[in-house]
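cron nightly-structures :: item 1 of 1
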Amino acid sequence: MPNFDYEAPTSLARALELLSRPGEVRALAGGTDIIDQLKNNRRNADLVVDLKRVPELLTLESNGSRLRIGSAVSCTDVHKFTLEKGGFSALTEAVELVGSIHIQNRASVGGNVCNAAPSADTIPSLLIHEAVAHTASASGGREIPLIDFFAGPGQTVLQKGEILKELVLPASSANTASAYLRFIPRNEMDIAVAGVGSLIEINPSTKVVTKARIALASVAPTPVRAYAAEKFLEGTVIDAVAIDKTADIAVGSAVPITDVRGSAEYRKELIRVLTKRTLNICMERLA
């Protein structure tokens, strides 16, 4: 691993000052990605700034109207918190899939987002729950809808000296359910060949879908929303036929590549299958 300087600030102001320094400065919110990238020369760094001791980045709270997740909060803590509080089932499921238990204890949801891998498990769940990224820098902060946060594989819209401070998710209604599924060749510790997060809100008396959100992973340069499938499903009475049609439409939002983990055609078929399964899980949770 190349040599670099290391700092572990205990205030947001100090962290932002360090991140604004000249040269290649990398933020470390868990380290499970950046350390491997440095070891394998996929990224370089003059300075690594460990954010795990910054109190402002360790917020994890829900006030009934929104969920706030600090960018340095571990996947394990998010899993326990959302499992207890309820309302964010897809996210609860997704954070439990990030690597091994040991990795989840260290890795953060914010780090998973900022790594910006198209296959990231937490991102589809955050997208369907309409997460907003709150950033911080020496010149102020921004609020960015998460769908607009990604610029390409491994790239975000964060500027020099700017960090993700927290993710804010609005609470869902009582008639809402969500689910996340991925397909991997092995049982664990693998990268998704494809992943789908789905969320639906229904009118319980008519079974008409009043809100639909579907997000796809590992089938485009960035995570994507299946807008056409969402538009079709909203205003429709949900049943097996509607779910099949929605899954077919969702495939149109996928623009996958062929690589060693699967062909483009295979990934499209996985999107169809996973969309159907996640929507059916949502229906079961609303029954």
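cron nightly-structures :: done
The mean pLDDT is 94.
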